[in-house]
């Protein structure tokens, strides 16, 4: 996978996440599927840093950049600032991955958050792209369960409303 393909995949996920977020019923930002799960607002906030925090770790080899990113996410007013925060994360991914040496993807040693050694390329796929995919699906399911049973695959996988049927 090239740097640009990786970036494009991440930006596509961000596009879908932003679109799904527009489908949240206005009275459902505190929706929580069960008492031990995040509510909608908490999930949206987490989405704004779920890729950038581990990307900093893969870039730097440490978690020093995590606290400011997580604090910004925790303070976000998701009703007015979510789309812009996701755009900033997309630009951060574009700039950070864009500045990486593509030759390092299969050579530079890194470590997964749980301690397993990996190469840089595998690390950014597993800790940056995969969380965007997984939490996009979680957001979709939250929105669907919170009062939007009408949303479907087009919103989830493509980030668009389906064409009206003839």
Record keyword descriptors for this entry:
166 residues, Four Helix Bundle (Hemerythrin (Met), subunit A), mainly alpha, two-stranded antiparallel sheet, 2 strands
What topology emerges from the helices and strands here?
Elements: H1 3-21, H2 40-47, H3 52-60, H4 66-75, H5 78-98, E1 109-111, E2 117-119, H6 120-145, H7 153-158
Helix pairs in contact: 1-5, 1-6, 2-4, 2-6, 3-5, 3-6
Radius of gyration: 16 Å
Could you spell the SSE succession in H and E letters? HHHHHEEHH
CATH topology label: Four Helix Bundle (Hemerythrin (Met), subunit A)
Q: What is the share of helical residues? A: 55-70%
Question: What is the strand content?
Answer: under 5%
Mean pLDDT reading: 96
Q: Looking across the biggest beta sheet, what order are the strands in? A: 1-2
Number of strands: 2
Number of helices: 7
Distance N to C terminus: 39 Å
Q: What would CATH call the homologous superfamily?
A: dinb family like domain
Architecture, CATH level 2? Up-down Bundle
The CATH C-level name is Mainly Alpha
């Amino acid at each position: 996978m090239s740097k640009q393909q990786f970036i494009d995949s991440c930006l596509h996920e961000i596009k879908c996440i932003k679109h799904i977020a527009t489908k949240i019923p206005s009275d459902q930002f505190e929706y929580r599927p069960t008492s031990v799960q995040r509510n909608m607002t908490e999930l949206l906030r987490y989405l704004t840093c779920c890729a950038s925090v581990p990307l900093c770790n893969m870039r730097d080899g440490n978690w020093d950049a995590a606290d400011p990113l997580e604090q910004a996410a925790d303070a976000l007013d998701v009703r007015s600032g979510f789309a812009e925060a996701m755009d900033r994360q997309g630009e951060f991914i574009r700039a950070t991955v864009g500045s990486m040496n593509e030759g390092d993807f299969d050579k530079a040693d890194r470590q997964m958050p749980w301690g397993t050694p990996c190469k840089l390329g595998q690390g950014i796929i597993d800790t940056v792209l995969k969380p965007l995919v997984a939490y996009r699906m979680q957001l979709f399911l939250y929105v669907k369960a919170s009062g939007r049973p009408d949303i479907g695959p087009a919103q989830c996988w493509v980030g668009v409303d389906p064409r009206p049927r003839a």
